[in-house]
Amino acid sequence: MSLPTFKDPSLFHRAVTHRSFVNEHPEELEDNERLEFLGDAVLDFVTGAFLYHRYPEMSEGQLTRLRAALVRTEQLAAFAIALNIGPLICLGRGEEEAGGRERLTLLCATLEAMIGAYFLDSGIEAVRQFVEPLFSQAAEQVLRAEADVDPKSLLQEWAQAKLGVTPHYRTISSSGPDHNKEFTVEVRLGEAVYGTGIGRNKQAAAQAAAEAALKKAEQE
């Protein structure tokens, strides 16, 4: 796993230049924040295209959840660590002393900036060739881990990535004697009811509601 080779070294330098460094070095013209913005957009596109072609059997909902897992801060920071980006970042003294090179958000942002810079330097196909090997193994790891994740966690991840909302669960009824009660729980995403579940306790009913909501999401 290695960093891409840039035709324009100044773009690479800008990609690893944190704003704290620019504040202390007036001769520096620009930090990497604009490149981070561009890289975030490029990364979303390349990741979406990769998953679309790699997993033709997946629904839109499944693809959205998987993409969200691949581009989350922790995962991108893990890629940055594997690529040994931390030592290359130009940091101001205060940020350096505060442990900036190990901060996950900073590592993630620097990788996104590097992808934005590489897009400007060499184009989308070069970015694809750089990114896809990173995502190939990670996607399989995410899918294996997802098999062990409960429906409520999966629904929350999907809802926040796709709709920008957090699921809200509400017990709408209960029936039966105390020793054998049955609960019905609904889950809402925003104003819409996405699923209803029944269980022997509220937690089991909520999990069933989340599972129903995921099935609904995958059909949209």
Can you lay out the helices and strands and say which pair or pack?
Blueprint: H1 9-15, H2 19-24, H3 33-54, H4 60-70, H5 73-82, H6 93-97, H7 104-122, H8 124-146, H9 151-162, E1 168-175, E2 182-189, E3 192-199, H10 202-219
Antiparallel strand pairs: 1-2, 2-3
Helix pairs in contact: 1-7, 3-4, 3-7, 3-8, 4-9, 5-7, 7-8, 9-10
Description:
- The protein has two domains: 138 residues, Ribonuclease iii, N-terminal Endonuclease Domain, Chain A (Orthogonal Bundle); 69 residues, Double Stranded RNA Binding Domain, CATH 3.30.160.20.
- 60% of the residues lie in helices and 11% in strands.
- The protein has ten helices and three strands; from the N terminus they run αααααααααβββα.
- A three-stranded antiparallel beta sheet has the order 1-2-3, covered by helices on one side.
- It is elongated.
- The two termini are 37 Å apart.
- The model has no long low-confidence stretch (mean pLDDT 89).
